[in-house]
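Protein modeling request. Please complete all fields; requests missing the sequence field cannot be processed.
Requester role: graduate student
Desired output: 3D structure, token encoding
Chains: 1
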Amino acid sequence: MIRMSMGYRVFNAFNILFLVALSFACLLPIIHILAISFSGSSEAGAGLVSLWPVGFTTSSYEFILKKPEFLTSIGVTLQRVSLGTVVGMLITLLVAYPLSKETHAFRMRTIYAWAFVFTILFNGGLIPWYMTIKWTGIMDTIWALVLPGAVPVFNIILLLNFFRGLPKELEESASIDGAGHWTTLWRIYAPLSMPAIATIMLFTIVNHWNSWFDGLILMKSHDNYPLSTYLQTILVRMDLTSVTGEALNNLREVSDRTAKAAQIFVGALPIMLVYPFLQRYFVKGIVMGSVKE
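Delivered output (293 residues):
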């Protein structure tokens, strides 16, 4: 057994304490937001809330969760995230694979690659984007939230660079055994690229979950609003004339600050639940990157 020197022990203890303090500092904003969301409106408005709720109440969550529109928006968001992730990941894989080939294997590779990069450097603008979606006839449908962002160029570039780093001998041996491009992609490239795919998948999920502006301008009916759009609208313009009964009693205990805190926490909670399941792929990706020659 190797004995550690005193200096190494001190250095190791300092690193542990520093990382614990850094982790706690990252959690402080989330804890603060959670405390505000469970605090009374007057206490939150007076700035009396730090890391523990003052005047504990669940009125902010009751005001949001008891509205039928909230449950409808959750369903729209879940549908958007599911369709958007599947379509986006499928297109990303199908585009990144051929673009990862060498020029002698795919002569038009450079031209296609620069065509995709061009869309990152130059944007058509909001009005042409809106008119294109309108002319396709998908306004006020779930596809208006999915198809416009179905070709994530940045994710494609990340994945094709990861593909280019894989050993070429694997593809050559599979080709000798009679495997075609489809078999090579789904049996070799995709399994070996799970760290990169998991990272891109998380980016896609977060993007669809947090997007609210496209839902605001592409959805004519409030029933088709995704969750982020719905929460943004009820905070920007609360229609008090339509709030009656028990909801009005809850509103008396809700302030703009507590409602925004509840919005932030509700919006971030699903991502915080998904991230731990993908964490091991991030760690594996870091290890693979560190030993790559």
